[in-house]
């Protein structure tokens, strides 16, 4: 009888929150639909698509649009079917069986999952009590364990904390023999990106996504930005037609409208400020119940002892948030959505048994 092999027989599928909720603030998506002008341009792009032909394997127009939007060179950009695909390809091709890779925990769970699937050796480096990255400790662990690939998010999911450019440069330069994969999925909400410095660091690869700030999670578009050698290798090992024609066409149309994207980003940042202000007020009213981390993402991260209990309570009120990496994570939403989650959290803390 056929049996699954050891590395996959006990695996469970990625399990995002399912079901119907009146407020969904669990997945860090943009709460904004694409502006109508962009929708119309996307429709026109779809109408021009040759459905009987394979997509451009290099996604040239899409990469050019991304490069122009972010001020990098097109030859530095490789498109993927979401940054998830690019992460999978990096583990698959840039590591050999038994090679060591490192993460800095807590962080995005799919890094460790990919390492396990590709039979690499996982070096999990813990963050300190402040949940910030200790450059010297990370560098020492990577050197000691002969780590071939170090991957982490900045700003971090789930902590929401960001490391500054100087800290990142110091870490990258201290590991010249290690591929440093810097996942900047949330960097649109901060200002410490290293996108413009990939040519200065031949061991650096930066990941970006259109799923958070740009409201295109449904398209599954991600990008790797790196120097010429890494970019060439990544193009050689990825699937030939990995980004479908529809995603290429719509993504190109949207990325060419930087003005609309910037205005949408400003709206999301105002929502974040509103959510943070409400959480600070809640913390003052119910001191000691949680600690709000000072993040630079599109979500708020809370340290609290009974996070899963809060999650369950809010779910019963029709509000979905996330508990991950030992933290409560709340995506900023539309003003009314922020108001609802804050009111329901206040109701949770106000219960007599929690006084």
UniProtKB/TrEMBL annotation:
Lineage: Bacteria, Bacillati, Bacillota, Clostridia, Eubacteriales
Cofactor: pyridoxal 5'-phosphate
Annotated HAMAP family: HisC_aminotrans_2
Catalytic activity: L-histidinol phosphate + 2-oxoglutarate = 3-(imidazol-4-yl)-2-oxopropyl phosphate + L-glutamate
Entry's family note: Belongs to the class-II pyridoxal-phosphate-dependent aminotransferase family. Histidinol-phosphate aminotransferase subfamily.
The Aminotransferase class I/classII large domain, residue ranges: 24-343
GO biological process: L-histidine biosynthetic process
EC numbers for this chain: 2.6.1.9
Gene Ontology terms for molecular function: histidinol-phosphate transaminase activity; pyridoxal phosphate binding
Signal peptide bounds: none
Xref: SUPFAM superfamilies: PLP-dependent transferases (SSF53383)
Keywords, comma-separated and alphabetical: Amino-acid biosynthesis, Aminotransferase, Histidine biosynthesis, Pyridoxal phosphate, Transferase
Organism: Candidatus Acutalibacter pullistercoris
Oligomeric form and interacting partners: Homodimer.
UniProt key word Oxidoreductase: no
Modified residues annotated as N6-(pyridoxal phosphate)lysine in this record: 212
Pathway: Amino-acid biosynthesis; L-histidine biosynthesis; L-histidine from 5-phospho-alpha-D-ribose 1-diphosphate: step 7/9
Descriptive protein name: Histidinol-phosphate aminotransferase
């Amino acid at each position: 009888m056929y049996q699954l092999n050891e590395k996959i027989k006990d695996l469970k599928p990625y399990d995002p929150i399912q079901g119907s909720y009146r407020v969904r603030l669990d997945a860090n998506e943009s709460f904004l639909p694409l502006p109508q002008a962009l929708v119309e341009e996307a429709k026109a792009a779809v109408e021009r698509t040759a459905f009987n032909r394979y997509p451009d394997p290099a996604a040239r127009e899409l990469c050019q649009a991304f490069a122009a939007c972010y001020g990098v060179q097109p030859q530095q950009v490789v498109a993927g079917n979401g940054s998830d695909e690019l992460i999978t390809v990096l583990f698959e091709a840039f590591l050999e069986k038994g090679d060591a890779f490192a993460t800095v925990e807590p962080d995005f769970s799919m890094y460790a999952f990919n390492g396990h699937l590709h039979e690499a050796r996982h070096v999990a480096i813990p963050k300190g009590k402040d949940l910030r990255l200790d450059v010297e400790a990370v560098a020492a662990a990577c050197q000691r364990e002969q780590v071939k690939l170090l991957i982490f998010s900045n700003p971090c999911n789930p902590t929401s904390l960001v490391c500054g450019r100087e800290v990142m440069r110091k870490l990258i330069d201290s590991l010249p023999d290690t591929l440093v994969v810097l996942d900047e999925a949330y960097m649109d909400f901060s200002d410490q990106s290293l996108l413009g410095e990939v040519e200065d660091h031949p061991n650096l690869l930066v990941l970006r996504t259109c799923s958070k700030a740009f409201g295109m999670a449904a398209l599954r578009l991600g990008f790797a930005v790196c120097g010429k050698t890494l970019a060439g290798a990544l193009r050689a090992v990825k699937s030939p037609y990995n980004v479908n024609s529809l995603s290429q066409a719509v993504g190109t149309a949207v990325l060419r409208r930087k003005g609309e994207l910037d205005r949408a980003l400003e709206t999301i940042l105002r929502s974040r400020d509103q959510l943070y202000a409400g959480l600070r007020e809640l913390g003052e009213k119910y001191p000691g119940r949680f600690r709000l981390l000072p993040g630079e993402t599109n979500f708020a991260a809370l340290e609290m002892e009974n996070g899963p209990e809060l999650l369950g309570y809010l779910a019963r009120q029709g509000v979905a948030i996330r508990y991950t990496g030992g933290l409560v994570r709340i995506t900023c939403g539309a003003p009314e959505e922020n108001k609802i989650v804050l009111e329901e959290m206040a109701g949770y803390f106000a219960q007599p048994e929690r006084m």
